[in-house]
Each structure stands twice: as C-alpha cells, then as structure tokens.
Design a protein that fits this description.
single chain, Rossmann fold, 13 helices, 17% strand
Amino acid sequence: MKIGIMLPNWIGDVVMATPTLRAIRKHYGGRAEIAGIMRPYVSQVLAGTDWLDQCFYYDRKSRDEELSGSSLLRQLRVWKPDAMVLLPNSLWGGVLAWMSGARERVGYGRNARGLLLTKTLTAPRENRKLKPVPAIDYYLELAYSLGCQTEPPKLELATLPEDEAGSDAVWHDLVLDKVSRVIIFNTGSASGTARNWPEEAYVSLAKRIVEDSDSAVLVICGPAEREAAARVARHANHPRVKSMADQDLSIGVAKACVRRGQLMVTTDSGPRHYGPAFNVPTITLSGPIDPRWSESHDPDAITIQYPVDCGPCGKAVCPFEHHRCMRGITVDTVFSAIETQLAKQADKRAA
C-alpha cells in the first residue's frame, strides 16, 4: 500500500503533526510505503526521523519547474498512491489528491473540498465558529479515521550528526561550553510583528538571567531575524549574552542548539515547538493567537498571556498599533516563570 501525506507549510504545524506521522507509521508498519508531500524546507524539520519512506517536494511560489504543482502531480501519478491524507485544509490539496488517482482521500471538509474526498472529517465548531482545538489533536483525528490506535500527543524531532556538529561549533565559538546553563531565546516570528515581545524586554530579561554567573543566553534566529537577534545581544552588552546572527542558521543547527539548551523563552512561533519535541522546558509569550490552537500538551511548558479586551485577535499586525497584548507581559512575570521552571528541574534532579 502507498500512502501520501500532505504536510503543513509552517514549521510549528509540521512539528505538531509528528504524533500523527508516528501513529500512521506504527499502524501500517512495513506494510505501507509512506511518502511526505511537502515544501522543501519541511524536510529539514523532520530530518533524522524515520516515519517517511520518501518525500515529494513542491513550492508553488518558486519559479523552479521541478517544484511546480504540475510537476508534483506528474510524480504522484507515476508513484500511484492508494491513499492521500491531507493535513492542511486547502482546496488545492483536495484537487491534488483527487487528480493523483488515489482511491482513498482523507481530510477535513473545509474550503469547499468535501466532494473531492472519500472520507471527510468535520472540524469542531462552537457557536458557528471554528472551535479552538490543539493542532496536535486536530491532525491526530485524521490518523484515527484510518484505524490508527490512540497515540500520545508527545511532540518528537531528531537531529543529524551534522546538526550536532554545527551546534558544537556554536557552543565553542560563543564560549557557551564554559557555563552549565544556557537559556535559549527565540525572539522572532515569521507570521508578523503582532507576536513579537519588545526587544528592550528581551534585553532586560537577558541581563537578569546572567546575574547568575553560571548562566548564559543564546538568541537563536532565522535569516530574516539575524539583525534583531544581534541587537538583543549587543544592547545587553554582556559576555554571556550571545546571538546566532553570525552562525550557521540552518533549521538543523537551530534544532540541535535548542536540544542542548536547559530552557527556552520564545514567541508563539514555529521554533517554540522544538522545546517540547526535545524535552526542553519552554516558556511561550503568547499574544494575538488563542493559545488553545498551539497547545503542546507538555507538562514542562508554560504559556504567558496578558489579557486584553481586543484579543486574541489572530492578526499578523496589531490593528490598533498599541501591541498591548505583548507589551503587557512584564519582564518580572517572565523571570518568575524562569525561576519556576529552574526550580522544577532542580526538584527532578534531586528526586
């Protein structure tokens, strides 16, 4: 049997889909050839895991013909999937599954694609609106519709040897190997400025953290956040507050750096899910997005949200320009959460 799984486009959603991939692989074992259908960078997120036998890549915004939708469709028709499982809700995904020739096409019946599917799930609603449910659970329902057994919602990722070598280089170059505790800051968001905590707040928090002589702060970033990460480290002006601005910014190295950190403070963005996936306690600063959508089910995760009358609005940019939902989160509140997390770690070591 051949099963094609269309994966989400965003890093965080891909990580939240890992319990679903694990459930499908457990259910079919070696009886099925399972392929992931994804944008190219998604493979870096999943690198080192063993749930997929092969991958098909596409990028509808690319000018590369090999990544076009028509190229993807040709490849799928040659491969001849028996079933297609659609994690995203797009109409395009439904059309692709139908045109691929797969006899079984499973997904949520949203965006007018229900007639293209052979097994249609209904998204939970509350007062006629979509009910906020964790993406982890939302995706797992697709696996259960295939007959998969109940799967723990634990997020899971892996790293490659070259990722670990890259993080070794970061630790050496930034002299992080001289301290016993490295706290990771993930300060950016690819989904707009509304999710960002003020840079000056990160600077103040970093300064408080490194008052402990055995602690350091590492600000991770993607290429688009390179300058912002560098500013946080520069304005903190302390030898144990570092940024990855001048380091290898691959997804694999970022995963490896989070994995070897002791704690993570993060915006509500994709890399926040690296923490739970690697059992790293995480503090998420949540603003415009209802935190129920991205609940990680991780007992070592803390979400901080400042209540405002206008939120959670779900907007990428604050429509009122006051950004109160994020500015209302104080440095004292976050530092208190850090102390709570570190105390829990100490208790676990002592047990």
